[in-house]
Amino acid sequence: MTKQDSKALLSANSLTCIREERILFDELSFTINSGDIVQIEGPNGAGKTSLLRILAGLSRPYAGEVMYLDESITRCRDEYNEDLLYLGHLAGVKSELTAEENLYFNLRVSGYDQFDARDILSNVNLTGFEDALAGHLSAGQHRRTALARLWHTNSRIWILDEPFTAIDKRGVAELEQLFLQHADNGGCVIVTTHQDMGIISEERLRKIRLEYRFV
Fold this sequence. Notes:
single chain; alpha/beta; 25% strand; AAA+_ATPase; translocase; ATP binding; transmembrane transporter activity; Cytochrome C biogenesis protein CcmA
C-alpha cells in the first residue's frame, strides 16, 4: 500500500452550512475511502444538495473544510478537479446541441481527446439518437445524455445529485452496476436519491442522514 493509498480519498471536517439564516447542518464530519458508495439522505430542505456542492468545491461552508488526500481542497484545486466528476440535479445539457455534441463538449472540457462518443452513448441506450437535438429528447434521454460521461472518466470521486431522475428501472440497475464497478476499481460514489437502490446491498451502501432543522 502506497502512502497515497493509505489516505482518505475525501473527508469532511466539522462542516457547517447556513442558508438564509437557517443552519442546515453543523459540525458534520465523515471520511470517504476508495471503494465506498455513500448515499446522502434526508427530507427536502435538509441540505443534501448544499452538502454535495460543498464537497465538490462549488460552495464554501460557513465553517469547516473538505480534505482530499489529507489536504484542503482549497490548496489543491487543480488536482482535486482532475479527480472529481460532479453531476448536479440539473442535467447540464445544452438543448441546442445534439446528444453526441453534448457528450463531445463535456469530455473535451474535462480534458479527454481520444474517445468514440457514439460508442459511449450506446452504454446509455441512446443509439439512434446521437444526432437528435437535446431539446427534442425526452426527459429520460436528456438525463442519460448527461450521465454518459460516467462511462468515460478517470476521475475517482463521483458526486451525483439525483442521478436516477427520469431514468427507468433498467437504467437505474445499469447505473448501480456501474457504481459497484467504479468502487471496486478504487473509486468512490457519493449520491443523493429518493429511489431505493435494489442492487447495491445494505452492507455495501453507507448512508449519511441529514435532518431538517427549523432553527
